Amino acid sequence: MSTPVGRFAPTPSGRMHLGNVFAAMIAWLSVKSRGGHLVLRMEDLDTQRTSAEFAETLRQDLKWLGLHWDEETPPQSQRSAVYDAYFEKLRDMDLLYPCYCSRSQLHNVNAPHLSDGTYVYAGTCRDLTEEQRAAQKRQPSWRVRVPDREFSLTDLVQGPYRENLLTDCGDFVVRRADGVYVYQLAVTVDDGESGVTEVVRGWDLLGSAPRQMYLQELFGFDHPQYAHIPMLMAPEGRRLSKRDQDLDMGALRNRLRPEQLIGVLAHAAGLTEDAAPISAKELAAIFDWSKIRGKEIVVTELEKLYG
Ligand SMILES: [Zn+2]
């Protein structure tokens, strides 16, 4: 078997919070427990919200946790020329067309998407004539035509998942009207060019896997193994999020040693018997994917994070 290649692809838009730490930890454990290679990539397509300072703090926080990476690839904000080339590939395959629909038109005409609350595109602009296109005033977004075909995967955590791209999703946007490439295209290109063999991320992104699998096919990349991990919940059933500022890395690093933080997360994930301090390296020796299940895990020993 070849060396597993994993990745951690955070958005540098603020301090890492507990959920980001968990995602980074599991991605790291999965590859490092099998002697693999970890790629770090900053997902900063949204240049308004992200910054180089946040990216640097993120690197320092990962090092503090003991989650070292083998390689950092260029941030997405510097890769538009690369994305242009893949966009042109789609155009050469005659799979792209301009979409002039406004946001309100999209909401009125289209049915809700199965998985992520977006809308199934009805194909309004799919077959416009050249004259109809020339008459449009609006800057178009660009959509890729999807086949009437089911894409299926077996997620390492969530199990089987399938979606017919035409009926469950519709032709989807790959480049926005302002020229910015969307997540689906950028992620597919970046993971593909980095030779990523496994994608570990929150289960809320499971519904985007079929679109990425379709683009992987078109671009000639192998499909990675997907692992969509549970979200972290507080004992009272609330989702832990960026809003819990006393659980961001700035606050956590003031109160805890890295082993204490990793110990609590490892126990919540079912990897250890108790929440005793443990290093990432020690945890890699006993890491087991089969213990991580479901869409939510409760951090029962949350109080330990408050020192
Ligand atoms: Zn349209």
Description:
- It contains eleven helices and 14 strands.
- By secondary structure, it is of the alpha/beta class.
- The strands form six sheets. It has a three-stranded parallel sheet with strand order 1-2-3, covered by helices on one side. Strands 4-7-10 form a three-stranded antiparallel sheet. The protein has a two-stranded antiparallel ribbon with strand order 5-6.
- The protein is elongated and about 70 Å long.
- The model has no long low-confidence stretch (mean pLDDT 94).
- Residues 99-101, 124-125 line the site of zinc ion.
- Zinc ion is lined by residues 99-101, 124-125.
In short:
The chain is of the alpha/beta class.
Could you report the average pLDDT, rounded to the nearest whole number?
Answer: 94
Shape: elongated
For the secondary structure, the number of strands is: 14
Multimerization status: single chain
Query: Largest beta sheet: what is the strand line-up?
Result: 1-2-3
Give the H and E element order. Answer: EHEHEHEHEEHEEEHEHEHEEHHHE
Give the low-pLDDT segments. none
Number of helical regions: 11
Q: Radius of gyration over alpha carbons?
A: 21 Å
Q: What structural category do the secondary elements indicate?
A: alpha/beta
Bound molecules: zinc ion
Percent of sequence in beta strands: 15-25%
Helicity, as a percent range: 25-40%
How would you sum up the major sheet? 3 strands, parallel
Measure the end-to-end span. 43 Å
